[in-house]
Structures are given as C-alpha cells and as structure tokens.
Amino acid sequence: MRRDYSKIHLDAMQIAAGDYKNHLGGKANAWRRRGEFQLELLKSLGLRTQDRLLDVGCGPIRGGVHFIRHLEVGGYVGVDFNPSFVAAANGILEETGLSSRAPSVSIIEDFDFTHIEGTFDWILCFSVLNHCIEDDRRKFFERIRHVMHVDSRLVVTHGGWFDAARLDGTGLALQRRIGGESELSPRLAFADWGFGEAGDRLPILEFALKYPPRERGTVNGA
After folding, report:
1. What is the distance between the alpha carbons of residues 194 and 38, in angstroms, rounded to a whole number?
2. Are 202 and 159 in contact (CB under 8 A)?
3. Which of 119, 179, 113, 172 is nearest to 141 (CA)?
4. Domain count, the chain
5. Which of 36, 108, 131, 164 is the most exposed place for a label (fewest CB within 10 A)?
6. What is the pLDDT of residues 138-165, one digit of tens each?
7. Model pLDDT, residue 213
8. 16 within some domain
9. Do residues 118 and 147 make contact, with C-beta atoms less than 8 angstroms apart?
10. What pLDDT score was predicted for residue 178?
11. What is the mean pLDDT of the chain?
C-alpha cells in the first residue's frame, strides 16, 4: 500500500516526543532493528567504511544513524522531501553527537540532485520509490546519474513495480535482481529484523551506469 508522506506535518513537540517513528513501517517497536538492517544489507552487497553514501528518502535517519557510525567522517549524505522528517533527523544528529561525524541531511524536491556536491559510491533508496507515483519514479531514474560515477551502485528495495523499460534513455543498467530471501545472506532473514514475511520488500534491485555522464567529461566521472 502506497503511503502519502507529503501529508505528514510534525511540530517541534511531536518531533521531540519521537512521533515520527509512528509514520514508518514497524513503528517504534522495530525502529532500531529495521534501521540496522539497512546497514547490514549494504555491507552484504559490498559497502566499505571508506565509501561515500547517498541515502535517498532518508526520513528521520532510522538507517542513517547506523550508516553514520559505520562510515568514515563525512561519508553520509541523506536527503528527503518531507521537512518534518529532515528536522527530526537533524535533531537526532545533535542529540546523539553524530553531528561531529560531519553528516549532511537536507530537503530535496522532485529528485533534483543538482544541488548535491560530488558523486557517491553507493546510493540507497530503501522503501521510497514504492511510495511514489509513476512521474516521480521517472524523474528519479532520469536524474540520479548526476550523483553517480562509473563505479557507483544504486540499490532500490521494494521493487515489485519495476519494469526494465523504464531505464530507456537513463544511461542506467540493472546489474542484479534479488528476487527471493534465499538469495540473501542467512544473516539478513527478514523475520530476524522485525519485518515478518518478505512481502513487498523484494525484489531488491542494484543498478550502475552504462557509461559515464557526458557532462563529467572524464572516464572516472570526476
């Protein structure tokens, strides 16, 4: 079921009380485990501590706090279109002291990545595009290469809506499709992380650039 996160508006008191947890799957009871799962998933796919990660649709950094602790200083950038979630995320960074690790969490609109500096080794889109309308998905795939280099990997979960034809003209290629829980490490069994049945979390899709973006002008996308 698609949730409309644009309708979520939280004031400062609600954010301070942690009400944002009630707007994500699993709510407060599974908050930590589901966040940790995101880190374990990317580690199983090859994430290294020295890598740079863009967390698209980071929300109130349920997974972000774990990435920030795992990655080297400055290695995490999160973006979300909901101002309340971004406010909650920045509050969490201050409360936990994680702001000292130089993460960045900011608002993004219409998947406009042009204001984001540099490129990323990994881009995570965890349970985001499944909540989007078709036009937003189109914008995402057309614009995401702005922040990719030739070795970047884009990971999209909850991909039951995906059709390969939507990659036409984007310069992206599907590198891997994880369609069953048995294709994941046993350590990532969904039930152990507060998810219950695999459900619509699969397939998990991994994308890469077919070729460097022309505007970069070099073979390494720098």
Report:
1. 12
2. yes
3. 172
4. 1
5. 164
6. 999 999 999 999 999 999 999 999 999 9
7. 52
8. no
9. yes
10. 96
11. 90
In a domain, 90, yes or no: yes
pLDDT tens for 120-136 read: 999 999 999 999 999 99
The token pair at 171 is: 């310069």
In a domain, 78, yes or no: yes
pLDDT > 90 fraction of the chain, expressed in percent and rounded: 76
Cα–Cα dist 37/63, whole Å: 8
Question: Which residues on neighbouring strands pair with residue 153, listed in sequence order?
Answer: 122
Residue 10 has pLDDT above 90, yes or no: no
- Structural domain harbouring 141: 30-213
Residue 13 lies in a domain: no
**pLDDT in the model for residue 28:** 85
* Confidence grade of residue 218 (pLDDT, cut at 50, 70, 90): very low
In this structure, what CATH number is given to the domain that contains residue 193?
3.40.50.150
